[in-house]
Input
Amino acid sequence: MCGIVGLHLREPSLEVRLGELLTAMLGQVVERGPDSAGVAVYGDPGLCPPGRTVVSVLGTSKAEVEAVLPGVRAYDADATTVVHTDAASVAAALPDARVIGSGEGFAVLKGTGNPVGLAESFGLASVTGWQGIGHTRMATESAVTPEGAHPFSVGPGQCLVHNGSFANHATIRRELRAQGVEFDSENDSEVGARFVAHQLAQGADLEKALRLLCERFDGFYTLLVSTSDSFAVVRDAIACKPALVAETDAWVAMASEYRALDVLPGIENARIFEPEPEEVYVWRR
Output
């Protein structure tokens, strides 16, 4: 049992409230995942300066980054360090650090512990932007570590959060490895993220990639996947993992429970529905 929240803003005047709203949503699903938490945010000019590549890294610190990469800015957010440079430079200067997200216009922040405390450590309430997703984890398939926390970001600007479990993840992991795909953890959710990234790299759009995932993966799952221009939701054929979507002219939101949607402005006028099994829902910027 894990908690998922996500917010895709259509109304630019709400962008100054992205972090505030995402923090409130995350706080409503703490009981679903008290072990660890993570968020991905899109469009914050402090975390993600326009036109700059941003790398989110575990296993280092602002001080260490700025010591080995002179002139490069970094930002500590709990276990995550956000670095304003490219992933190749980070890998060369800090070979023992682990990149957990890379691309323009977005940042990934992850850590272990109570999600409310982590949101405070991230400084999430002050973040601005046009899109954010979050996850609270109750570990079942791998250890409680920052590496095992969601979101999994394995493609440029792409993130995946997952509630459930993939029964055949070991088989698909072997198949992807045979095609040259590398993995950072034993987490089953990373297999889903790698599969989607692999399909996108081969030319599929996000809707097709998620349809292929439904065809190939066994198990119970609700997935929220974000990219640099999209926000998508899909559930398995049985749809036993909870999910609700709310939509207004100002925003689209998804959460594991209604109470996480009830904190949003205008929720009383929203169209609220439960995603149908194996139907892919995609909203684009």
About this structure: Helices lie at 18-27, 62-68, 87-93, 115-122, 169-178, 188-201, 206-216, 258-261. The radius of gyration is 17 Å. The chain has a mean pLDDT of 95. The chain is about 25% helix and 30% strand.
